[in-house]
Amino acid sequence: PAPVVAVVGRPNVGKSTLVNRVIGRREAVVEDVPGVTRDRVSYSAEWLGRPFTMVDTGGWESDARGIDKTVADQAELAVQRADAVLLVLDTVVGVTATDEAIVKMLRRSGRPVILVANKCDSRALELQATELWSLGMGEPYPVSALHGKGAGDLLDALFEIL
Ligand code: GDP
Ligand code: MG
Q: What does this protein do (predicted)?
């Protein structure tokens, strides 16, 4: 079976935009309102002829309650079932307490993680992305999911660990 890759991160960091960019379709729902993806949704993707499954998740929040708690639980479940994880971060905002809580959850999971420094729409932001090394999760890959920049290097790195 095709390897499974879970896409996790805070609400509004661009997870669904990234999924759409990689699958080359607009099926994952993108919204300016945080937390729109309520369920895990799987999509068939391919990189250089190699198939994989991408699982878009709702935004993970450490202090979530009610529906948001369900969304966070679904994201954790997606991580547990994944062969690798793309942790999406907002380079413009930088590292937040929630990002750090997600990193803890991911370390517990033991799954291999690749850091996606999203929203690197400019060269200056690409340089800013190096600050994400501070998470201690290895190299941050600068990407602009919106403009389609950096996805190739990211997917090359992903297939090195799959
Ligand atoms: P999700 O909640 O993590 O799935 O985030 P979405 O994919 O729904 O995107 C949230 C918002 O961020 C939307 O307004 C997107 O257009 C915007 N966004 C996503 N990727 C980028 C990017 O690379 N650059 C910029 N400037 N905005 C982005
Ligand atoms: Mg989404």
A: GTPase that plays an essential role in the late steps of ribosome biogenesis.
